[in-house]
Every structure is written in structure tokens, then in C-alpha cells.
Design a protein that fits this description.
alpha/beta; 2 domains; 10 strands; binds the ligand C=C(O[C@@H]1C=C(C(=O)O)C=C[C@H]1O)C(=O)O; MqnA; menaquinone biosynthesis; EC 4.2.1.151; Menaquinone_biosynth
């Protein structure tokens, strides 16, 4: 059985995939599956995807079956720019109000709930919706969007709408980085496909360094073509994201899972197991 590889279809993870030699990988029969995180999470839990950029929350829910690619993630120390709560009211005034949550996310949905419950002390009602800024705000007091849905919502700069960046709120409250996505592999695939997984690990790690080395400029040409916007915006966006998974990132994730557990958003605390840790420095 060839390897199925999940690729988050938002731009935030692109630095880890941009320079992968997909043709070479696909020659083995492997395929890349671009999808929103929530769909990749589901397919990976069912065993239809073997390796994927997935929501860190979903890793936490299935950690006994997954291992992490070392030193790869989508994280920030503070502002992320693409995980945004758009609200008609100040965040402190959302108690008892209704918040529409994007159906594409897992990490950020729980991050929002944790922040509101633990740090702000409000209890809104939540409803999950297909991401659509106008429809969500037409019938709810606030909405949570991620990825390009959030970025494009931010570009609207609507007065009367408060915009909260969850990465920034998390950092203010905890002083820790937040990791939104990890590169996880199913343990059953490791036994079957070790050499190909090592090749992917090396290529992703190299893609991370190479995109960073030119300030993401070659990659941004492709992003501009697909999404528009200003080159300076994207440069600032990718420079604000941190693609490592250091001990400090794991500390941030552990804090996140402890709070999620405290408020019953997750059933148990995850274990962190790594694939091929010895290659982490490359
Ligand atoms: C930075 C982002 O990180 C993401 C957020 C995720 C989530 O909330 O589950 C999952 C993967 C990442 O794509 C983003 O989508 O904007």
C-alpha cells in the first residue's frame, strides 16, 4: 500500500512542502492530498492518510497511534495573522453570545474555547459552520476563521468589527509559543515505509530552510499568483510563523493540552513520541 500524504491546503504550511520533489515521491505510488485541516484530521484518524500536516489538537487526540516528525510545525510566538476572531463586541462582552466556529479547524477551535474560559472568563454558545465571513456574522455575534478565510477577512478592515489574533492572546496570557499544526505519521505506516518517510522528513526539513533562506520570496511569487494580496503582506506573514518544534514548542503544546483537559475539551493528556529524532538537527 503506497503512502498517502496529507497537505494542509492553506498557505501557512507551504514552506514545508514547497521544495519537496513531488514527482520523485509520487513515482513510488504515493499521493499528496490537499485538504483543510479538519478533513485531514478525520482521514488520518481513519487510516486513509499515513502522514500529514494535521491540527496539533488532532495529534493530541490520537497520540497513541501517531509519531511526530521532529522540529517541524506551524507555530508562532505571538501574532499569527490567520487565526482570527472577528467580533461585533469586545471579547470580554461575549458571555452568553453566539460564536460561529469554522468547520475547517480543530486546534484553533479549542484554543478559542480555552482562552475564553480560562483567561477571559466568558461562556458563549458555539456553533460550527462552513467558513464564510458574511454568513457567519449575519447570524452570530462573532466568528472564528483560519487560513486564507481569516486573512481575507482581515483585509476587509471593517470598522465596528473587533479583530482578535489568537496567537497573540495565547502569548500574552502564557508567554509560550503556540503550535497549530504538526507533521504526524501513523505508527502503522512507519513499519511499512521507513525509507520513504525518511526521504520526506529530509525534504520537508530542507524545504523549511530553503524557503526561509530567501525570505520566502520565490514561494511568495506562487502564493501571489493563487491568492493575490501584497508581496509585503505575505513576507511579513511567513516571517511571523515559526516552523520549528523545539522543547519550548512542546512546552507550549503541553500547556494547551493541560488546559483543554482541565475544561474537558480532550479526554486524556497526550504522549509525545517522535519519528527519527536523530535527524532533527538537519
Ligand atoms: C496558522 C494556521 O494554522 C492552522 C490551524 C489549524 C487548526 O486550527 O486546526 C490546523 C492547521 C493549520 O493550518 C492557520 O490555518 O491559519
Amino acid at each position: 500500500m503506497a503512502l498517502n500524504i496529507g497537505e494542509i491546503k492553506y498557505t501557512n504550511i507551504l514552506p514545508l512542502f514547497f521544495y519537496i520533489n513531488k514527482k520523485e515521491i509520487e513515482k513510488t505510488g504515493a499521493q499528496f492530498i490537499p485538504q483543510v485541516p479538519a478533513e485531514l484530521n478525520r482521514r488520518m484518524a481513519r487510516g486513509e492518510i499515513d502522514l500529514g500536516g494535521i491540527s496539533s489538537f488532532s495529534f493530541g487526540e490520537n497520540s497513541h497511534q501517531y509519531s511526530l516528525f521532529p522540529n517541524l510545525s506551524v507555530s508562532t510566538y505571538g501574532k499569527v495573522g490567520s487565526i482570527l476572531l472577528f467580533s461585533k463586541r469586545k471579547i470580554e462582552e461575549l458571555d452568553g453570545k453566539s460564536i460561529a466556529l469554522t468547520s475547517s479547524s480543530a486546534t484553533s477551535v479549542v484554543l478559542l474555547k480555552v482562552i475564553l474560559k480560562e483567561f477571559i472568563g466568558v461562556n458563549p454558545d458555539y456553533i460550527t459552520m462552513t467558513p464564510d465571513y458574511d454568513e457567519m456574522l449575519a447570524s452570530h455575534d462573532a466568528c472564528l476563521l483560519i487560513g486564507e478565510d481569516a486573512i481575507k477577512g482581515g483585509w476587509r478592515q471593517e470598522k465596528d468589527i473587533y479583530v482578535y489574533d489568537l496567537g497573540e492572546l495565547w502569548y500574552e496570557k502564557t508567554g509560550l509559543p503556540m503550535t497549530y499544526a504538526v507533521m504526524a505519521v501513523r505508527n502503522d505506516a512507519i513499519k511499512r515505509e521507513t525509507p520513504l518517510l525518511e526521504k520526506l522528513q529530509i525534504q520537508m526539513t530542507e524545504s523549511k530552510s530553503r524557503t526561509k533562506a530567501d525570505g520566502y520570496q520565490e514561494m511568495i511569487e506562487a502564493v501571489l499568483h493563487e491568492h493575490g494580496g501584497e508581496s509585503a503582506f505575505w513576507t511579513n506573514y511567513f516571517r511571523g510563523i515559526n516552523y520549528d518544534l523545539s522543547e519550548n514548542h512542546v512546552k507550549g503544546l503541553k500547556r494547551y493540552f493541560e488546559l483543554a483537559y482541565k475544561h474537558s475539551f480532550i479526554q486524556s493528556l497526550p504522549e509525545f513520541t517522535f519519528f527519527n529524532y536523530s535527524l532533527q538537527g538537519i
